[in-house]
Automatic annotation (TrEMBL):
Pfam family, one: PBP_like_2
Domain of life: Bacteria
Molecular function per GO: phosphate ion binding
InterPro entries according to UniProt: PBP_domain, Phos-bd, Phosphate_ABC_transporter
Keywords: Cell membrane, Lipoprotein, Membrane, Palmitate, Phosphate transport, Signal, Transport
Subcellular location(s) per record: Cell membrane
PROSITE patterns: PROKAR_LIPOPROTEIN
Protein name per the record: Phosphate-binding protein
Originating organism: Staphylococcus lloydii
CDD domains, sorted: PBP2_phosphate_like_2
Function: Involved in the system for phosphate transport across the cytoplasmic membrane.
Length: 327
């Protein structure tokens, strides 16, 4: 288990700063000619995937330094819009207002899906009555309308609910707000650190919380998963199969966004993005998430190849134009 160092409100994985020191035992000579610095930020859900990936990448590319922070999806996009990062990780799609800000800054971007996740609802291990919830009941809990479990289901005890949620910097918060709250306010104890939410549910007998599937997988001996009814009344639960095929009611894709101009010029970023897609979700699986179908990775590798091919043609065209001007 990697240790995480808290820096201000941003969690930084110490093992993500591997590129500069990756030339030790087991490193490959074949990519020593590729150099560069690559900087990312964003989703704390995606962070463990990048960490696992970078452990492998650093061995093959010892002269590329990749650093990644986890300020949350929203916080990551703020830095991406400011132009201070090369890639931005997200546990939700980029929002229209973020697209507009990037447009105003003249920043073009590329979107890549890298894994699949299922937002998992959990209650305290000693809770012996909450086995399933529908989206309406979840909204009642997280809007504050339901104060006790009896308010949710008349057969349940009149014990006060203690609801926990990621804060507004998280894409998981945005996803839950969209899917469950109809964009209404979430009234719960909010925290930037997902591990704190896990601990809060573990320590509160009337606790309920939600977070990415990998956090549940890592703590399933301490928490109880709740099944979710979809709009058709079908009971669903998060498993690798239901998350990958999207049949789980709270399935979602995970993304990495690259700055198009920086991708064009930064060989390290090119190598890292290629490595990410060719990994085909192995790092995501080892981090507790679910890989996309292999065809999806192949389609995105083709997409990246076309982007880089076009960039090279544009560069060659500019060189030819410059030669003509010099003559």
């Amino acid at each position: 288990m990697k240790k995480w160092q808290l820096v201000g409100s941003t969690i930084v994985g110490a093992s993500l700063l591997l590129g500069a020191c990756g030339g030790g035992n087991g490193s490959s000579d074949k990519h020593k000619d590729v150099e560069g610095k690559v900087k990312g930020d964003g989703s704390s859900t995606v962070g463990p995937i990048i960490e696992k990936l970078n452990e492998k990448f650093a061995k093959d590319y010892p002269n590329v330094t990749v650093s990644n922070s986890t300020a949350g999806t929203g916080g990551g996009f703020e830095k991406f819009i400011a132009g201070s990062t090369d890639f931005s990780n997200a546990s939700r799609p980029i929002e229209p207002e973020e697209k507009q800000k990037l447009k105003e800054k003249g920043i073009k971007y590329n979107e890549f899906k890298i894994a699949q996740d299922g937002v998992t609802i959990t209650v305290n291990k000693d809770n012996d009555f909450v086995k399933e919830l529908d989206k309406k009941q979840l909204k009642e809990i997280y809007s504050g309308k339901a104060k006790t479990w009896k308010d949710v289901n008349s057969k349940w005890p009149a014990k006060k609910i203690k609801a926990f949620s990621p804060d507004q910097s998280h894409g998981t918060f945005d996803f839950f707000t969209e899917e469950i709250m109809d964009k209404g306010d979430i009234k719960a104890d909010k925290n930037a650190d997902t591990n704190t939410i896990v601990k809060s549910v573990e320590n509160n007998k009337q606790g309920i919380g939600y977070f990415g599937y990998n956090f549940y997988e890592q703590n399933k001996d301490k928490l109880k998963e709740v099944k979710i009814k979809d709009e058709n009344g079908k009971l669903t639960e998060p498993t690798k199969k239901t998350i990958q095929n999207g049949s789980y009611a709270l399935s979602r894709p995970l993304f990495t966004y690259t700055n198009a101009e920086k991708l064009k010029d930064n060989k390290g970023l090119q190598a890292f993005t290629k490595f990410l897609l060719k990994d085909e979700g192995k790092s995501a699986e080892s981090a507790g998430f679910v890989a996309l179908p292999k065809k999806d990775y192949k389609d995105q590798q083709d997409k990246l190849d076309k982007i880089l091919e076009k960039d090279n043609k544009d560069k060659d065209s500019k060189k030819d134009d410059k030669k003509k001007d010099d003559k």
